[in-house]
Write a structure and sequence with these properties.
Distance between the termini: 16 Å
Number of helices: 3
Strand order of the largest sheet: 6-5-4-3-7
Order of helices and strands: EEHEHEEEHE
Helix content: 10-25%
Strand content: 15-25%
C-alpha cells in the first residue's frame, strides 16, 4: 500500500485488481481517521463517534479543502462508509443519499418506503417515490455545488 504525503492525504488502496484499483481521498480523515483501506470500525461507544461529530468534522475538512460538500450514497449495503457514518439501519431496500455541505445542514434523500428507518437520525430528509423524483431531488440538493466529494467502495 502506497502512502503519499500530500495536501489531500491520498492513499492507494491496492487491494483491488489493477484495472479496478482506486486511489481515493481519505476524506473520512475528517471524521476521526477511521476509514482507511483496512477494516472500518462501527460507530458507537468504541469509537466515541456520533453522526453529529462526523458531520462537524467533515464540514471543517470540506471547507479547508475548498469543496462544496460530500455526497454519500448507498444501495443494498454496497457502501460501508455510508453506514459507518449514519450507523447501521436494518432493512433499507432502496437507494439512499446523504449530502453533507461544507456549510449548512446535512440532508438525507431516501425512498418513501424507507423514510421511517432514518427518523432517529434527526436530519432533514427528502423523500422520493420514483427514479425521476430521486434525480430531481438530487439536482436540487446539489444545485450550485461546484466541487463535490464522493467515495466508492
Amino acid at each position: 500500500m502506497e502512502n503519499r504525503p500530500d495536501k489531500y492525504n491520498i492513499r492507494d488502496c491496492g487491494a483491488a485488481p489493477p484495472r479496478l484499483r482506486a486511489v481515493r481521498v481519505r476524506l473520512p480523515d475528517a471524521i476521526g481517521g477511521l476509514y482507511d483501506c483496512g477494516r472500518i470500525p462501527p460507530l458507537g461507544e468504541d469509537t466515541q463517534l456520533t453522526i453529529e461529530s462526523a458531520i462537524q468534522n467533515s464540514q471543517q475538512y470540506l471547507r479547508d479543502a475548498g469543496m462544496a460538500g460530500w455526497l454519500l450514497y448507498d444501495y443494498r449495503g454496497m457502501n460501508p462508509i455510508f453506514w459507518e457514518t449514519v450507523g447501521q439501519i436494518p432493512n433499507v431496500t432502496r437507494p439512499c443519499w446523504l449530502w453533507i455541505p461544507a456549510d449548512g445542514d446535512p440532508r438525507l434523500l431516501v425512498s418513501k418506503v424507507d423514510q421511517g428507518r432514518f427518523e432517529h437520525l434527526g436530519l432533514a430528509t427528502d423523500v422520493f417515490g420514483s427514479r425521476q423524483e430521486m434525480t430531481a431531488a438530487l439536482s436540487q440538493m446539489l444545485r450550485g455545488a461546484r466541487r463535490v466529494a464522493m467515495e466508492y467502495s
